[in-house]
Amino acid sequence: MRMIALIIIVLSGGLLLYATQDFPQWADPASPASLHLSPHYIQKSMEETSVPNLVTAVLADYRGFDTMFETTVIFCAGVACFMLLRISRQTPEDRYYRHISTGVTIHIKDGGKIPDKSKEFERIDTMWTPFDLVIKTVCRFLIPFIQLFALYVIAHGHHSPGGGFQGGVILGASIILLAISHNLRTATKRMNEKLIGLLCVTGVFIYAGTGALCLLIGLNFLDYSALASVLFLDPVSARSFGILIVEIGVGIAVMATMIWIYNNVSSAGKYDEGL
Amino acid sequence: MSQHYPALLVIVPLLSAFLISAAGWLNKRLCFPIAVAALSVACFSSVLLLFQVLDEKVVLYKLGGWSPPWGIAYSVDYLNGLVLVVVSVVALLNLIATQRNVEQEFSEKIGAFYTLYILFVTGLLGIVVTGDAFNLYVLLEIASLTGYGLIAMGENRAPLATLNYLYMGTIGASFYLLGIGYLYIVTGSLNMADISAILPSLYHSKTVLAAFVICIVGVWLKMAFFPLHAWLPNAYTYAPSAVSSLIAPLMTKVIIYVMIRLMLTVFTPKYIFSTLNVSDSIVWIAVIAIVMGAILALGQRNLKKMLAYIIVAEVGYMVGGAWLGNRAGMTGAILHIANDALMTLCVFLVVGNIVYKVKGYAFEDLKGLFRKMPFTMGAFVVGAMSIIGVPPTCGFFSKWYLISGAIQAGHYGFMVALLFSSLVNVILFFRVIEISYYEPFENHHGQESHPGKIAEAPLTMLVPLLIVAAGLVVVGVYTGDIVNHIIEFAIPKGIV
Questions:
Q1: Within chain A, how many helices (H) and strands (E) appear?
Q2: What is the chain B residue with the closest CA to A217?
Q3: Is there a contact between A201 and B142 if contact means CB atoms under 8 Å apart?
Q4: Contact A76 B153 (CB under 8 A)
Q5: In whole angstroms, what is the distance from residue A96 CA to residue A83 CA?
Q6: pLDDT digits (tens, 9 = 90+) for A154-182
Q7: Domain ranges (residues) in chain A
């Protein structure tokens, strides 16, 4: 069996090498890829979309339809993780609580619990992490700056590398950092599961909804120039702002999906109390 | 509005999937109606789109308003116009038929289930409608990812089967992407029509050859063509019944459409049939696929897995027909996409009904079911006749075209394989029918306290099933019209 696998790998590698013989030269300005479509993007993207970063122009406008579905792929991943991992009904379980000031741990059987708001007891389970002053303080200081930077990355995708995907990941990472440095329960208190699920869908809906709005106004799907009449702009600037709107949608969707997947995977779908 | 049908077809299900996901959090009862409404709109626009194609030959839709080589364009012609109708109709009928199964199996996560269901259909519709090779990959990702999620929700062994499917499917999709990347290096374009216009000067390029091989192997992996089929039987068997009756009829058929699209539109018939000299060997692989699929199906002791192996054989039919290189074979392959989708839906819906009532699909669970579920089993007989190829059901006609294609091409091996698999199908289905007709019903789950509880499935499950069964005959009767008005024009003039 190993032999067969080895033969297949060598054969496919050989095929790939064989194909490179007819490749254009490395960085050849006369290669088909740089002659056919690229000149149009390079020369026209500014006057057609008024986006200085032409990668963003191609990604979110010329081929914006692909990007919408890439965002949907991320959404799918979030929903699939939720569907596969989330355990909604749990059998009554034993719980452990620790009295914070004395350090005495009590064991409650058959699903009994101490009121959530209790300040004197903390629940001890797989999600419980011991208190660590340095980590918690550093993270508490860092998180706002991470989030600010994420917003910058989303908003600045027009002019510099960045955009919704990168910004959304950074934004999501800030909440995940909160969950790691404190515990999952602290993070879900800030953003509960329902909110995350709804944010996730809101993000993709903003993208696809913007497209559908263009269609309703009377142009083709995702033709942002239709937004000119809504945003009171000329059609070219409307394209630029249309891109910003969908980038914000992407950012929200990516952030929420990141957190959603982290929550489901890290707690094996149990969260805290069940739905 | 009529110029927007290609977009509406994909966008309405997409937006509805998001609404369903939100409804899953807010009010679960809304999920199913939104799903039905979305797929009804998709169905409606696909039918209108087909009529539009009959008038205008090709319907082009520029997404974002950008012209094709620079932006993404949807391009609907006779070939995908037909497949779009099949996909949306099958998905809608299955959605309605399996409502009860879904409630039974996913009561808590109904929102997530229908979100993935509708996104899966969106992905398939997007694959079929697009005229852009990379856009096809993105939608393939959506269809695959949601498919993995849906299949993994099945029985105990489903997650393992899904993992296997995930590895194989990911390799298949990556191969396709790699092939498209190679094509982009030498042509500089991603639009299918544009690529095929540039390719003739590159017919002897080694890169194009490698791109072709990689793309085709990639789609073979995704469609479970014989030596690459290992993921399919377990994945389709252990999936929840509502999911297997969605994915089994549609996924492999849509990927076969992708293969035919690559052959006819991207690489062009001249390249694949004249420049390359591979069609004969591929038909021989198809012969092996058909024979092995039939033999492996014989060895199964449960209905669902037997049907899964029949799909492996049917994939061989269509690949072989497409690669015969003549008009009759290609007609048979395209017609069989539609027919096989319908008959697979029919038999898998029957399995769904049986699982709903009997909670099992092993052969022993089928004993005496003709008495208990006469309509369900009646539909099963129609579906079985169609798969065997008995006139006037539609399965007969596509097999007829495939066999006459094989004779025209002088490929008697393929003809013998088709006849052999029909004979094996006779054995397979009559064995099932015999068990369920002659053997007395037993209470096999030790539920002696509830004797005679098994009865016919509820009407919401039965009516769509009977519609599908009637559809098999109707499509069979109107085969001539479908071939003369649609498929005839879907095949380029170059193929005789």
A1: 11, 3
A2: B1
A3: no
A4: no
A5: 28
A6: 888 777 787 889 999 999 999 999 888 88
A7: 52-87+130-267
